[in-house]
Specification:
- With 121 residues, this protein is α/β, with parallel strands linked by helices.
- The protein has one domain (3-117): Rossmann fold, CATH 3.40.50.
- The chain contains 5 helices and 5 strands, in the order βαβαβαβαβα.
- It has a 5-stranded parallel sheet with strand order 2-1-3-4-5, sandwiched between helices.
- Helix 1 (11-23) links the parallel strand 1 and strand 2 (27-31).
- The protein starts with a strand and ends with a helix.
């Protein structure tokens, strides 16, 4: 079973993402900020990361840059999920190593389509 780390400071977003991704066949782990997410990845590298941008302690972009420099950190497919929708933010995320980008609010169809695009389902 493929694994996905859901990283968001909102417990509601984590819960919604968990439900959708479990329905798509993923085993889910959660983290409420980038620092905790990085610790989780060091313990066990996931197949995918569903990542928020704006979080306390370590934001999504900082996490992504740190993840990509970790041993095996180039492996996970990273899907940013955020309210940041301007082209500059999207470009920064892609340059930092994001594979896809989803805007909040999201639904099952959007998540499924993006995860298919990056070859996870």
């Amino acid at each position: 079973m493929k694994t996905c780390l859901v990283v968001d400071d909102s417990s509601v977003i984590r819960k919604v993402a968990r439900r959708i991704l479990e329905e798509l066949g993923f085993e889910i782990a959660e983290a409420e900020d980038g620092s905790k997410a990085l610790e989780a990845c060091r313990r066990s590298m996931p197949d995918a990361v569903f990542l928020d941008w704006n979080m306390p302690v370590m934001d999504g972009l900082e996490f992504l840059k740190a993840l990509r420099s970790e041993p095996g950190g180039e492996q996970p497919k990273v899907v940013f999920c955020t309210t940041e929708n301007d082209v500059a933010h999207i470009a920064r995320a892609i340059r930092a190593g994001a594979n896809e980008y989803i805007m909040k609010p999201f639904d099952r169809e959007i998540v499924e389509a993006k995860f298919q695009e990056v070859g996870l389902i």
